[in-house]
What does this fold into?
Amino acid sequence: MSHGTLRLLQGFLGLLKLADWITSLPGLGIMLWIWLNLTLPYDSALALWLTTLVPLLMANHEAVKDRL
It folds into this structure.
């Protein structure tokens, strides 16, 4: 493989890693906070973020309990 092909493959794998991180629960929480904080006043953003995040965390907690 040439150097350019390896660099392209490395970039593609980096994008896959980024997509995996963004779609994980912590990544979704962080991305949601950034988006809400940029589009709404702080108090409204915090209230919406917590309202959205608590059910996600509870669902994740239940899923972990079901595995055990």
The mean pLDDT is 84. Residues 26 and 57 are 10 Å apart (CA to CA).
